[in-house]
Amino acid sequence: MNHLPLIIKREYLTKVKNKSFIIMTFLSPIIFMALIGFVAYLSQLNNDKVRVISVLDESKLVQNVFKNSEHVTYNILEGMSVNDAKDLVLETEGTGLLHINQLENDAIDAQHITFYSEDAPSISLISDIENQLEKRLTDINLQKNGVDVEMINNSKVRVNISQESFEGEKTSKVDSVVKLIFGGAAGYLLFMFIIIYGNMIMRSVIEEKTSRIIEVIISSVKPIQLMLGKIIGTSLAGITQFVIWLILGGVLMSITTLVLGIEMQTPQQQMAEEAMNNPEVNLQIQNIANAFYHLPLTNLIIAFVMFFVGGYLLYSSLYAAIGAAVDNETDTQQFMMPIIMPLVLAVYIGIFTVIEDPHGMVSTVFSFIPLTSPVVMLMRIPFGVPIWEQILSFLILIGTFMGTVWFAAKIYRVGILMYGKKPTYKELLKWIKY
Amino acid sequence: MSNLLEVANVSKKFGNFTALNNASLSVPEGSIFGLLGPNGAGKTTLIRIVNQITMPDSGTVHLGGELLNENHIRDIGYLPEERGLYKSMKVGEQALYLAQLKGLSKAEAKKRLKYWFERLEIGDWWNKKIQELSKGMAQKIQFVVTVLHEPKLLIFDEPFSGFDPINANLIKDEILRLRDNGATVIFSTHRMESVEELCDDIALIHKSNKILDGKLVDIKRQYKINTFEVGLRTANNEALRLELNEKFNVSDANFKTLEDELKVNIKLNPDQKPNDLLNYLTTKGEISHFVELIPSVNDIFIQTVKNN
């Protein structure tokens, strides 16, 4: 008798109807968005403050360089001593005083420039001032040495190497970034999904043990059916939750933008406007759009579904086995480590080595090892992985999955009827022979 | 009467531990069969093998003449000793789910559940969650779920635990009614008085071996000790006691009487007849008590386990 649909249905409905599940589903996006809104609001508060910086330029060389911006106003002082200037800034509660000393023989260097302030200024403010000064002083120096600054500016060339594979496929640097984002998102999504819903499966197994219903159930169905039903039912509940999160996130995002938004977005909007007028940035946008087209989308989608499902099933059967081996959640810790480790390893390899060299030794090897392959392979695929490699890796994954299910089912079958003491790894191995 | 369940030479080991050693037993159709044994003897392992939860290392199990297979799952109703229900699920939903797992259609399960819930007067619990019910109430639901699909073989492991005397009686009557309607019942318990009351056949398992089985009356006959409990009113109890000591194997007895009587157990040799004893005693005084001692299941249990 095949009870799988019945079990899946029950697992799904109990999960979805569970109060804390419902609350989590609808509350977490709201909390998340509220948090983002709050942070945005705070940084806006910070930005609203206009800093007033007084400049006392005794050399008269650079005082015209400073342009007022939205957040910083420069106040040029003249004909007073440094101490008077300091007093003035203190009195008017200005942010600070930039003092450029009188120059001997026109050579200017860092020692002649000092910034006085009550509190240490932010790094971004200082580097902003430094940039402006550097540019101006370099120009002055160049001129002094008889170099035509105009000529230098006109001679500058920006290089953007256009990349093309031997098959004639065009790629670019932007392509790589887009690929990285795609792969990274896919890998990270799988990682999160495994951790959240693997735990849910484990808890559900433990619940059946502690409520002692397990023996009643397995006198009607095979343990492996129960286990698969649990995994599939919980996954469906997980997918439901994810979809709701995506929709809610989208809705909330637009609401937040509408209500809080317009001011919050100003810097970005400005940037976007500037970008539109800038042919170079326009080109970049074009490139990003192109990069999308260059992605092996069909391959990506198929591989995503296959590796996502394969990887998730592999890990969730391990979670189910852990749940069966112990009596309560506090006992799960020692068994969690060997599961979490390869998962974290996979994400780090994905982040550090795939960026460096998507087809290098390390990334290639780890995209075949089953416990890391789903994450690493998903990150590699946007960079173009030969189909045979993908298929081989997937076959290894599926083979391992079958082995793991067999192994997990053994532990599950014995474990669900074991109460009392927490088993050791040695005992788990013994169970397989029962 | 044919046997519904035939267990033949079943052995099961868990690592180095032997849970069952070459156990065989037959459960006659339409009987109530008591499966007895000390804790850890192997009863639960045997029951789990019959339920196909555990696979035996060797030996065979036949149910209704067929080798045990997947289709038999719906022929068996099992109430385990370690039992429970999903705490956060509603009673009705849960019962429906468990019934469907046993192969009933949803509509049929609903109909039967209505009947049983009315019968046990628990109809208004349908929408309650298990965690709102008391232990005894949950046990009632569990009992209904076990018998709902009208299995040929019912296996109850300590069915009365958690019940008050009234409900225990109610369940006992239901078990007897199910037997009368044709079901065969395997009954595992440590409560010897309910074995005495309910069982037609018993088997005793001790340290993974079956050490005794058969019809309860046959076993009792086999364990008969040919001893009579005697109460006698005489002028001089002490003198008679001495006289009896010479003729018979006599020990002190203890039972309730109205007067100060001589109370003894008299064990007869195979060549001594109860009637002769009775005739002899009538000449000595007024008999208030003459009963053959029948060994209780409790005595048989303790004696057999100790001897092994």
Classify the secondary structure makeup of chain B into a structural class: alpha/beta
Outline of chain B, from the CA principal axes? elongated
Low-confidence segments of chain A, given as residue ranges, are: 262-266
N-to-C SSE string of chain B, H for helix and E for strand: EEEHEEEHHHEHEHEEHEHEEHEH
How do the strands of the widest beta sheet of chain B line up side by side?
6-7-8-3-9-10
Specify the number of helices of chain B.
10
Total helices of chain A: the number is 16
Please, could you describe this protein's structure?
The complex is a heterodimer of chains A (434) and B (308). In chain A, the strands form two sheets. A four-stranded mixed beta sheet of chain A has the order 2-1-3-4, covered by helices on one side. In chain A, strands 5-6 form a two-stranded antiparallel sheet. Chain A is of the alpha/beta class and 434 residues long. Chain A is 69% helix and 6% strand. Chain A folds into two domains: 50-151, 3-Layer(aba) Sandwich (D-Maltodextrin-Binding Protein, domain 2), CATH 3.40.190; 173-432, no CATH class. By secondary structure, chain B is α/β, with parallel strands linked by helices. In chain B, the strands form three sheets. Chain B has a six-stranded mixed beta sheet with strand order 6-7-8-3-9-10, with helices on both faces. The interface between A and B is medium-sized, with 24 and 30 residues.
In short:
The complex is a heterodimer of chains A (434) and B (308). With 434 residues, chain A is α/β, with parallel strands linked by helices.
